[in-house]
Design goal:
single chain, mainly alpha, 6 helices, about 80% helix, elongated
């Protein structure tokens, strides 16, 4: 097993410099020649073709889909998991139950996540607004005479 790892690492040290110093230059020179010979219309690709715009749009859409899938998995895990030690999963589960009580049969993961986040902020704001009981506590003898 160690021999294969060493062979792999050795081949990386051999092929990476060959690719970096030789092959990448050959490919670059070939592409430049094709652009200069008008075989590749670079202006069309950059301006009118929208190749890079559509590529950026597809990338953003893919990342959005992955994010929503991960949120869905997190929501399902929160619904079926133990909520004793994790307040985030308990909040997501509570948000899901609240949305179901409102009438949404299968609430979307992003909606559950946002509602749980809003409920957490409301809880933090209410905890900060409550006066500290210990700040007004007077342990002196005068307090006990009352």
């Amino acid at each position: 097993m160690i021999e294969y790892v060493l062979i792999f690492i050795g081949s990386l040290f051999l092929w990476l410099p060959i690719y970096y110093y030789m092959v990448s230059r050959w490919v670059g020179d070939h592409v430049v020649k094709r652009v200069e010979n008008k075989e590749i219309d670079l202006n069309y690709l950059l301006d009118e073709g929208g190749v890079f715009d559509s590529m950026a749009g597809r990338t953003v859409e893919l990342l959005k889909n992955h994010m929503l899938a991960e949120m869905g998995q997190m929501t399902r895990a929160a619904q079926h998991g133990d909520h004793d030690g994790d307040p985030a999963s308990a909040g997501i589960a509570a948000a899901g139950e609240l949305l179901k009580a409102v009438g949404i049969k299968k609430p979307p993961a992003i909606l559950q996540f946002k509602l749980a986040n809003a409920m957490g902020q409301m809880l933090n704001n209410s905890a900060a607004a409550e006066p500290d009981i210990m700040a007004t506590f007077d342990p002196s003898d005068e307090f006990y005479k009352q």
